[in-house]
Amino acid sequence: MRDYDGEEYGDVESPDSFAAVPDAFQRLWTPYRIAYIESNHAGSAPSQHPEACAFCVAPTLSDEQALIVHRGELAYVLLNLFPYNSGHMLVCPYRHVATYDLATDAEVAEIARLTQVAMRVATAASSAHGFNIGMNQGAVAGAGIAAHLHQHIVPRWPADANFLPIIGGTKAIPRLLGDVRQQFADAWPAD
User: Fold this and answer.
1) For residue 102, what are the contacts with CB-CB under 8 A and spacing of at least 6?
2) What span, in angstroms and rounded, lies between the C-alpha atoms of 124 and 112?
3) pTM for the whole thing?
4) Taking the C-alpha atoms of 158, 42, 46 and 73 in order, what is their torsion angle to the nearest 10 degrees?
5) According to the model, what pLDDT value does residue 88 have?
6) For residues 30 and 156, what is the distance between their CA atoms, to the nearest angstrom?
7) CA 76, CA 81: separation in Å to the nearest integer?
8) Which residues are catalytic?
9) Nearest Cα to 90, choosing from 103, 81, 99?
């Protein structure tokens, strides 16, 4: 076989020749991701320097600059700068803490409460039909900022996913971050 430059690189393996027994899973091979993984952009070791942490810096900026939707007592809600979907929010404690088990009971309670309110806001403001909610704990688990705990809240709608990111290397986000931040901030209930 030849690559795009015409260089020989060998034969593509037939799945029939794999050493393992075939299973029911289909595979989507994404070799372009290895450059991201090997460049260590998939996360780094937790930093002991909060001044270099984006989630520690964000609360020092204006809500518009940092895309903050709501500021609580122990945690705040902001839009993800690299959203999986329109309205992708993050709930972060103000305190620089890396993992959920290191958060205080009060921080955990506020993160949970703000997550619930964020879901209600996204439903009311943008008619979200469902959500993906979760935390990636540590760089090896996919945390882009492993040093600072953050919960993802990703609104979902029917047919909002497609193959554009895989085929075209592009993610279609239909609304501007500043517009979404303002809409969600306006829809956030008064404390």
Assistant:
1) 149
2) 19
3) 0.71
4) -20
5) 94
6) 23
7) 15
8) 150
9) 81
Residue 96 tokens, joined: 């620089």
Scanning the structure block, which residue is given the tokens 């404690």? 93
Tens digit of each residue's pLDDT (9 = 90 or more) over 130-182? 999 999 998 888 888 899 999 999 999 887 776 666 666 767 777 888 888 99
Cα atoms found within 13 Å of the Cα of residue 71, Cβ hemisphere only: 12
- Give pLDDT tens digits for 85-135: 889 999 999 999 999 999 999 999 999 999 999 999 999 999 999 999 999
Residue 5, CA distances (Å) to 2, 8, 23, 32, 34 in order: 8, 9, 34, 16, 20
Q: What percentage of residues in the chain have a pLDDT greater than 90?
A: 51
SS3 content of the chain, % helix, strand, coil (to 5): 35, 15, 50
Distance CA 162, CA 12 (A): 27
* Secondary structure (3-state) at 162: coil
Provide the β-strand partners of residue 131.
155
Are the beta carbons of 180 and 79 closer than 8 angstroms?
yes
pLDDT tens across 4-47, in order?
Answer: 555 554 555 555 555 555 666 666 566 666 665 565 544 444 44
- Is the alpha carbon torsion for 40, 44, 50, 54 positive or negative? positive
What are the sequence ranges of the domains in the chain?
51-187
What residue has token string 């959203």?
83
CATH topology of domain 51-187: HIT family, subunit A (3.30.428)
